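Team,

Forwarding the record for the chain on the shared tracking sheet. I've put the sequence and predicted structure together so nobody has to dig through attachments.
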Amino acid sequence: MIELVRQYWQNYLYTDGYQFTGLVITLWLLVASIGLGFCLAIPLAVARSSSNRFISGPVWLYTYVFRGTPLYVQLLVVYTGLYSLHFVHSHALLDTFFRNAMNCTLLAFALNECAYVTEIFAGTIKATPYGEIEAAQAYGMSKYKLYTRIILPSALRRALPNYSNEVILMLHATTLAFTATVPDILKVTRDVNSATYASFQAYSIAAVLYACIVFALVWAFRRMEARLLAFLKPQGH
């Protein structure tokens, strides 16, 4: 048991210079993937909600492909499939990028996250009450101001409950990172299990760590919802 605790301390919580492992890697994958996915999803959601098929069509195709195929397959395509292409490993910059397991994992996670979040945001943009749009147009707002001041702030607030679920699902999806040899929680758990043969204890500790992260995320999103969605609650007389 002492050996198990020592292994977990070294692999989950201990940091040595810039070599972060275990828990920190999982949190980094989560934050980086949802951050990149969020930033990319906002303009794509605006395009996806457009009535012009030449604008919304390519975005629909992108979200259809990434939501219609397993993330595990997408990770394998990015990590091993793309590097097998001649123009990738013959180009110095692409070769350097795709030889790094963390880069490939983060790219696959971010593209997958972006596809789901794009559809979530596009749905709330389309559901914006038309009265708000008419009021903004009557006030003389340009289309840019209409989106930045009325449509997007309202849509992002209303998308918060669905977006929080997607963030939690992304945390669960980070367990696939071990297939690309990224030392996340699950990869470290497998290494600890191989070193100690304490399978129940090893995977139980990993489950507790994931549960703690989920509880923290749920608490944070509930606080955000209470603050940002307070205007949707029925007002007492």
